[in-house]
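Students often ask why inverse folding is considered easier than folding. One informal answer: many sequences map to the same fold, so there is more than one right answer. In these notes we will look at a single instance of the problem. The structure comes first.
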């Protein structure tokens, strides 16, 4: 398996996660662990595995369940062995609050979004850190959003979601500071045509994902702890 890199993508059964898996499999040097809540129902991932020649493995992982994360980490350790996980892509995310605002948001929804968008990636990083540190590339990508940037100044909208992405950005910063051997970044994929982005979004998902991969593949150790977009530009905090 020399010259091969292991990628793990959460939320890989649709949207940005599925497109990441598709584009990664186009390179024979990539081994992809596609993590999703229900592998048995992930028809598009199963269709991809027919032509992947053993380079795609499906693993059950619900980022809102600590038990599921622990079980997935054990299963992945058995699959990848000493190679570890080169690129851990914390992609799974939700926005059930939609366009909610600070004084009207449902705090139960805020808790739910926080559990998936912040607690999930935090525990995934902890559970998989040993595998990441065993690998060659040692990279964690937290899929964030420019909506979580105060500098971008998006005003009142999408508050519960924005709060969680701002928190995820701080998590990225803390991960980078604590483990200098790891390259941890936040990544805004752009406004993309997925179930979350909607069909009126600015760009097809293929364009944003190609940009994410180009940016991630050109990361240098000194980029750790930073917030990038899919064009490889720095996003203000
Ligand atoms: N699309 C955009 O314009 C945009 C812009 C900025 C940032 N983002 C971020 O990009 C990421 C992917 O977004 P998307 O547009 O692909 O969204 P999407 O089309 O709604 O897909 C979301 C994915 O996350 C998974 N997911 C949700 N909760 C999960 C959980 N508890 N455990 C495991 N997987 C879970 C979903 O799995 P199920 O099928 O099982 O529900 C699905 O695969 C998110 O973090 C989002 O915040 C998207």
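Output (designed amino acids):
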């Amino acid at each position: 398996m020399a010259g091969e890199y292991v990628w793990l993508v959460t939320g890989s059964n649709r949207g940005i996660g599925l497109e990441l898996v598709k584009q990664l499999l186009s390179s024979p040097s990539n081994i992809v662990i596609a993590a999703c809540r229900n592998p048995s129902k992930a028809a598009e991932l199963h269709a991809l595995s027919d032509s992947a020649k053993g380079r795609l493995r499906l693993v059950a992982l619900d980022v809102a369940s600590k038990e599921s994360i622990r079980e997935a980490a054990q299963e992945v350790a058995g699959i990848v062995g000493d190679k570890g996980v080169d690129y851990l892509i914390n992609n799974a995310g939700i926005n059930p609050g939609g366009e909610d605002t600070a004084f009207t948001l449902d705090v139960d929804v805020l808790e739910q979004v926080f559990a998936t968008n912040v607690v999930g990636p935090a525990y995934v990083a902890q559970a998989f850190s040993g595998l990441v540190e065993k690998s060659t590339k040692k990279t964690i990508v937290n899929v964030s959003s420019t909506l979580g940037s105060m500098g971008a100044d998006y005003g009142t909208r999408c508050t519960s979601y924005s709060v969680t992405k701002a928190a995820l950005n701080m998590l990225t910063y803390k991960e980078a500071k604590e483990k200098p051997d790891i390259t941890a970044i936040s990544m805004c994929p752009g406004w993309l045509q997925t179930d979350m982005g909607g069909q009126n979004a600015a760009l097809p998902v293929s364009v944003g994902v190609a940009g994410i991969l180009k940016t991630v593949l050109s990361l240098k150790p000194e980029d750790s702890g930073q917030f990038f977009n899919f064009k490889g530009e720095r996003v203000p905090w």
